Amino acid sequence: MLVRDLMNPNPAKLRATATLSQALTLMAEEKVRHVVVVDEGEEVVGILSDRDLALFYDPVEMTRERWSAVTVGQLMTADPVVTGSATEIRPASQVLMQSGGSALPVVDNGELRGILSERDFVRYYAREGDGN
Predict the structure, then answer these.
(1) Sequence-separated (6 or more) residues with CB below 8 Å from residue 48
(2) What pLDDT was estimated at residue 127?
């Protein structure tokens, strides 16, 4: 099985200049935990996760203005580890585990093709079982 067989081909994406408010809205609308950050040429420059947002959250100082004042680029993980759509699932899963993240942007020839997340593996095994 290849990454392209398991990935989400329509990842949520934003520019680094987007506000955290915009990221939260997009994540809620799309029901996703990751946003791929792209530049003007649609090349991947980072990834923003719900974990990044949770670490930023301050229950005492959190205001709508604070969410609007900070950009995605300030919190994202820059230059994320990526994988290709033709990569076998096992090596891709090992890269995901070693990266310490929970999703890998899928990039072919510099172009964003999708995202492979832990959720994709769970969905696959819930649907297919372990093959035994």
Answers:
(1) 14, 23, 34, 35, 37, 72, 75, 76, 77
(2) 84
pLDDT digits over 12-42, tens only?
999 999 999 899 999 999 999 999 999 999 9
- Secondary-structure percent of the chain, ordered helix, strand, coil, rounded to 5: 40, 25, 35
Q: What is the dihedral of CA 20, 103, 78, 94, to 10 degrees?
A: 160
Contact criterion met (CB below 8 Å) for 44 and 114: no
Nearest to 76 by CA among 10, 11, 18: 18
Mean pLDDT, residues 97-108: 94
Separation of alpha carbons 37 and 18, rounded Å: 9
Question: For position 47, which CATH number holds?
Answer: 3.10.580.10
Question: For the chain, what is the total number of helices (H) and then of strands (E)?
Answer: 7, 6
Structural domain span for residue 82: 3-128
Query: According to the model, what pLDDT value does residue 131 have?
Result: 53
- pTM exceeds 0.85, yes or no: yes
For the chain, how many structural domains are there in total? 1
